[in-house]
Amino acid sequence: MAQLPPTDAFRAREITLDAAGIPLSALIAEPPSGRPRAVVVAVHGGGMRAGYFDSRARPGLSLLSLGAGLGYTVLSVDRPGYGSSAPHLPRGQHLAEQAATLHDGLAHFAATHDTGAGIFLVAHSNGGKLALAAAAEERGLGLIGLDISGLGSRLAVRTDQLPGRHGHGDWRRHWGSLRLYPPDAFRQGRHLVSPVPELEAHEGPLWPGMYPRIARRVRVPVRFTFAEQEQWWLFDDDALAALRRPLAAPTTVIAHQPDAGHNLSLGWAARTYHLKALGFLEDCLLAKDAEPARPVSRPVPAA
User: Residues 135, 82, 85, 277: is their CA dihedral positive or negative?
Assistant: First the structure.
């Protein structure tokens, strides 16, 4: 049996997307075959950078390498207000503006790259808010589905404890037990940390009220994952029912990841979580392939 090359053989490189004049820095890893099966767009959380999804603390933890090895193009984007867009957006953007900017950047990418079966968003924490907002304003994105970790709709903390412009909140809530992470994750994590833009920080406490309005317009499959030691969001039965209730998605999956903290993609569980996220993408592609053929309407001849 032929063996696949090790996933870390697929290294990421830096690119820049043109979002209607706003540069969005990003990392990209592409399959060797040329044509990707689909494009996985990874969207980082608050106070982080695109490298969140490209952990090199141990082999196999990078979503970019893993996805490219399985035939996908993986594009991890610095959200508006981070990376190369920060000088252009010194206060960041409100969520609706971020969604418009992301759409513009991905439209530029799609005009210059093969996107295969379409685009699948993998998002973390505040990036999940952007993924949902982008899905609610589809704009011909060719969106296949969403996989979101570290985001709910009911806070487990007071609003004044949330990360903000001048701090990242209680850092222990981002990580959980230190045993859940390779030692190098914390050294690497220092290079990923970035200030939370002012407008994003201001809007953070408003999310529980914003969520239902956005969720009602999301019409693609969605999967939410809560780490065992998630400490920012409630995920008891009542909270999960409130998360599901407003969604217009044809499929909503709730998953729990054992032996993990909020920063899932930097921990030992990163590979396990990424494989499950890509498995959900496979389910979405299968559902599209197996969709019943629509009857062709023909004009009725005149009597």
Answer: negative
Name the nearest CA neighbour of 145 among 58, 22, 73, 253: 253
pLDDT in tens, 155-201: 999 888 887 655 555 667 888 899 999 988 877 777 888 999 999 99
- In the numeric block, which tokens belong to residue 192? 């990923």
Whose CA is closest to 271, among 56, 26, 11, 5?
Answer: 56
Cα 133-252-43 angle, rounded to 5 deg: 40
According to DSSP, the β-strands at 22-29 and 73-77 are antiparallel
Show the tokens assigned to 299: 């004009």
User: pLDDT band at residue 2, thresholds of 50, 70 and 90?
Assistant: very low
Which tokens belong to 302? 């005149």
DSSP 300: P
Name, in order, each residue with C-beta under 8 angstroms of 169's C-beta and a sequence gap of 6 or more. 157, 161, 162, 163
pLDDT higher than threshold 90 for residue 136: yes
Domains in the chain: boundaries = 7-289
Give SS3 for 278: helix
Main-chain dihedrals φ then ψ at residue 161, nearest 5 degrees: -95, -5
Six-digit token pair at 253? 């999956």
CATH fold of the domain at 7-289: Rossmann fold (3.40.50)
Q: List the structure tokens of 211.
A: 């969520």
- Asked whether the CA dihedral 230, 232, 237, 242 is positive or negative, the reply is negative
Edge-to-edge order in the sheet of strand 73-77: 13-19, 22-29, 73-77, 39-43, 119-124, 143-149, 222-229, 252-261
> How far apart are the C-alpha atoms of 6 and 82, rounded to whole Å?
31
Digit-coded pLDDT (tens) for 13-36: 999 999 999 999 999 999 988 799
Return the percentage of the chain with pLDDT > 70, whole number. Answer: 90
Q: Give me 92's structure tokens.
A: 């960041």
